Amino acid sequence: MYHKNTILTLTRPNFYDLQLEIQGLKQFSELFSSKSQAPAFKDVCALAIQQNPWFTEDSIHAALKAWEHALQPSSIEKWLSTYKLETVSKRVGLILAGNIPLVGLNDLLCVLVSGHKAVLKTASDDTILLRWVVSLLTEAHPAWVAKIEFTEKMTGIEAIIATGSNNSSRYFEYYFKDIPHIIRKNRNSIAVLSGEETDEELFALGKDVFDYFGLGCRNVSKVYLPSDFNPTRLLAVWEPYRTALLTHNRYFNNFEYHLALLMVNRIKHYTNNALILLESDYISSPVSVLHYQFYDNKKALEQEIGGQLDQIQCILSATGNFKGSLPFGQSQRPELWDYADGIDSMAFLTERL
Which of the ends of the chain has fewer CB neighbours closer than 10 A, N or C? Predict the structure, then answer.
């Protein structure tokens, strides 16, 4: 259990210099880019896939490319330019998810660059990639060796950022109620179609649906369609995605299970034998199922979505023309400042601690 008398307060070292931290992050970016292309990374990849069968070489490299994009020097400078990084160093616990490759990296970078110590509890099925990243971080900036600690039990921490399910979040809220915390719950992303989209734009939306087999909170789990839109058009446009889906054992098992349930219960649906389209009011959908809902009035839809923002991670539209949306194909390419659940992690680390 967490006890107040176990809290340790560490004075920020005198040699701390934000510019050194930024330089370390830039050096990490260079190492990240070069070593992910090195032959030795194939072994890391193989071990990560063995540990978590939902990971594939394609999904791991997709995550790497997204991070290479986010870690451009200009993006690093832009990201940190708005924060006053003068806090006292604290032990910050990070309870990380393992649903998609490197999903907790943003939290780790936030803690390190803000001058705190990261106490990491990784997901049991995603330790390989994170430890590989930590090896690059400490190679790029040796001062971070003393700032990263792996643990199985969160003791002696002074703040926490925890990511989990709706069920685990209730436990986290109680367990860490006496220290500053960010507790994340289940979220999903949605897409809004106008009916005027080209096939190319709809194909790009397929990336938001199918990347990482739909397991990420930034994956689209529901689409809102104008009342005269034929849902089967999506299945036709997304035909090229079928092969990768059907050849993945776990995904296909999910597909067969949910299809059987719908058929036995005679529930109307559409399928291309790789994805199921199901009309539903719910935002969250299981793996291999995409929910859809028709709408008649855009303003009424904006109000409906506005009342559900606590369940939504991202909103997607063809050209980002729906209020607060990203263009199709961009959900899994977040910038460093695109924080999960819209909660500014750096502000939390620099202003509340």
Answer: N
